[in-house]
Write a structure and sequence with these properties.
The complex is a heterodimer of chains A (333) and B (286).
Chain A: H1 6-21, H2 42-75, H3 93-100, H4 102-133, H5 140-152, H6 155-165, H7 173-180, H8 192-220, H9 224-232, H10 237-248, H11 250-265, H12 269-275, H13 289-299, H14 303-332
Chain B: H1 2-43, H2 48-51, H3 66-74, H4 77-108, H5 114-123, H6 133-143, H7 149-153, H8 160-171, H9 175-183, H10 188-199, H11 201-217, H12 220-226, H13 235-245, H14 250-270, H15 272-282
Classes of the chains: A mainly alpha (333), B mainly alpha (286).
């Protein structure tokens, strides 16, 4: 039995009256179906389609992304260990331990150095190359390709190649180049300060192409009549760049800074490869935060402490990104 | 009049000098950037004694393939290569259909909670894989997929930036086409398959290529954590263990590096514009 409200009965009656007046109008019985829609209707087929696509998709997103991101917080408060059977809630003890852990502190400052050195280098060099490419040069796509090649290459062979380049003593190409210029050899690998810097150099070399490309795309979108107008007003090239082009691609520069920060803050592979093998005496001295995370979680199987490190990685990168948004927005005003 | 002509000539000369400087700068920087790669490719064809000879040479004096020939005897690099190809293909297959269907629904349907779901999907772009690596590992472990192909591919079958990219592309397809197909009696899936998918194909292809490059070269840490047995190694993992065990065999290591770089270089040079377009939009992030 279907319940029909009073107002509906009235409507029905009025429709009946209508029908008597105008025999051509067809009276449809009104159905009250739920959100699924009537069988064989357009709505039902659409709803079913959305459900069949979205239920698996959202489930995958939950399992692969959302749940892991949320549970990092929970696991970092326990002493979860893959070998120890009992897991207890330990509060913030993991974080307290990290504060007293010399290796963690040094890896933290190495990561900070990573960001401080890599981000300005990538942005400034990327902007320089993009500005050079944007001046209607011939064979532009050739240069673009050459700049971009390192970005798509896998990090492992790239890091191995650079490591070979910096082989200590007289065998390494880098030292050979220095020697041919009459400069003394540099202990690339055995001095951790230099080893960290060349690792950052690999990172910059590899990611530079990406920033050249996005800045170039931005510069191409700057309307040409603005440039011409500034030229007519007697602006020099440098003034055109500084006062017209750079302010207009500011959002892209902001995006680039954010990306560069996230990438250099979460760098891992190049550091991992550099610490491998026997020809280095550094090892632990050049480790960064994600390397520390890997060591804690997958070498010592201490998942709780590893999650504490990854929480530090995650929250601080989020903080830096928000700060950069604030600073660059603030400058806009 | 004469003065004017003289002026423009001076200006032209000035411009041409700055042009020359520009071209020299471009040439030097771009060649410096690819120089290590060229050097390595030539080195892999050198004999062992020549690699460590003291005035190093760019071109090998004696060309030899011995570095490549001995590789399969030391480590199953062909298997590693097939593993890499297999994982990239499976991941790309899922990405193509998942992203274009999800992009279609986000672009062309209206329903409750759509915006919320969209922001949920997009919000994960800025979180790097390294930050949630451990819980992801624990989940895959609890399903029992550690050390299997399934476990290696599993986190790579969704891509939020791809969904966003395809949504933007599908938004440009006119609604009238879809409605016309519906009036002619197309089912919803058929609308997707015969209209949306072909019309957004170039965007889908860009996403597929970007994903291929990404899975080949950017997720080393996940493979490192999940795959423990040599049978499952990708090119990168195989290369890493190879250089760890044969530190002094520079020729072999360089040859293995070249083998690991060449497939992706070939794909890049063949599909250059597509890759640059796709990468500059998605940033090769998940």
């Amino acid at each position: 039995m279907r319940l029909v409200s009073l107002s509906d009965q009235r409507k029905f009656l009025s429709l009946k009256i209508d029908m008597k007046r105008n025999t051509n109008s067809i009276v449809k019985k009104k159905f009250y179906y739920n959100w699924l829609g009537r069988p064989n209707s357009l709505k039902r087929s659409q709803v079913l389609f959305i459900l069949t696509v979205f239920i698996p998709l959202i489930a995958l997103f939950l399992i692969i992304r959302i749940i892991p991101i949320v549970t990092v917080f929970g696991i970092s408060l326990t002493n979860l260990h893959l070998i120890r059977p009992v897991t207890k809630f330990v509060g913030i003890r993991n974080f307290v331990h990290l504060l007293g852990d010399e290796q963690f502190i040094s890896s933290f400052f190495n990561s900070v150095e990573y960001v401080v050195v890599a981000v300005p280098l990538e942005i400034v060099l990327g902007l320089t190359f993009a500005l050079m490419l944007n001046r209607k040069v011939k064979f532009e796509s050739l240069y673009e390709t050459l700049y971009f090649i390192p970005y798509i290459l896998p990090m492992v062979p790239v890091a191995i190649i650079w490591k070979w380049f910096y082989t200590p003593g007289s065998f390494g190409l880098a030292n050979y180049l220095l020697g041919s210029l009459g400069l003394p050899y540099v202990p690339w690998m055995s001095n951790p300060k230099i080893a960290l810097l060349i690792t950052i150099g690999i990172h910059v070399w590899k990611n530079l192409g990406y920033f050249v490309i996005i800045f170039l795309v931005g510069l191409k979108n700057v309307p040409n009549n603005l440039r011409e107008a500034s030229k007519i007003d007697g602006a020099t090239n440098w003034q055109t760049i500084r006062l017209i082009e750079l302010p207009l691609i500011k959002p892209i520069i902001l995006y680039g800074v954010v990306m560069a920060t996230v990438w250099s803050w979460s760098a891992f592979t190049e550091v991992y490869i550099m610490t491998q093998g026997t020809d280095i005496s550094t090892g632990a001295e050049i480790q960064v935060l994600v390397y520390r995370l890997y060591q804690e979680a997958f070498v010592f199987h201490n998942m709780g402490r590893g999650c504490a490190v990854s929480l530090v990685v995650f929250l601080i990168s989020l903080g830096i990104v928000l700060l950069e948004f604030k600073i660059l927005r603030w400058k806009e005003r | 009049m004469k003065e004017r002509i003289g002026q423009t000539e001076v200006q032209k000369k000035k411009i041409s000098i700055s042009r020359v400087v520009l071209y020299v700068c471009l040439l030097i920087t771009s060649v410096t950037i690819v120089m290590p790669l060229i050097w390595v490719i030539f080195t892999s064809f050198k004999e062992k004694a020549e690699i460590i000879s003291i005035p190093p040479t760019l071109l090998p004096r004696i060309w030899t393939l011995s570095n490549y020939i001995k590789l399969p005897k030391v480590a199953p690099f062909f298997l590693f290569f097939l593993n890499s190809i297999f994982i990239c293909s499976v991941s790309t297959f899922f990405i193509i259909f998942g992203c274009s269907m999800a992009g279609y629904i986000f672009a062309k349907y209206k329903f409750k909670g759509q915006t919320f779901l969209f922001f949920l999907v997009m919000g994960t772009i800025l979180v790097p894989l390294q930050a949630y690596l451990i819980p992801l590992y624990l989940i895959v472990r609890s399903i029992g997929w550690i050390n299997t192909y399934r476990g290696m591919v599993f986190p790579l079958i969704i891509m939020s930036s791809g969904i966003f990219f395809l949504r933007q592309n599908i938004l440009a397809i006119p609604d009238e086409l879809i409605d016309a197909a519906r009036i002619d009696g197309c089912s919803e899936f058929r609308v997707f398959w015969t209209i949306i998918f072909p019309l957004s194909f170039s965007a889908t292809a860009a996403i597929a290529i970007v994903n291929w490059v990404y899975t080949w070269s950017q997720v080393f840490i996940w493979y490192l954590v999940v795959a423990n047995s040599e049978k499952l190694f990708t090119m990168e993992l195989g290369l890493m263990y190879f250089q760890r065990n044969y530190v002094t065999d520079y020729g072999g290591i360089m040859a293995a590096c070249v083998l690991c770089l060449l497939p992706i270089l070939a794909v890049f040079l063949a599909l250059r514009t597509r890759i640059i377009e796709g990468v500059s939009f998605t940033g090769m992030k998940y």
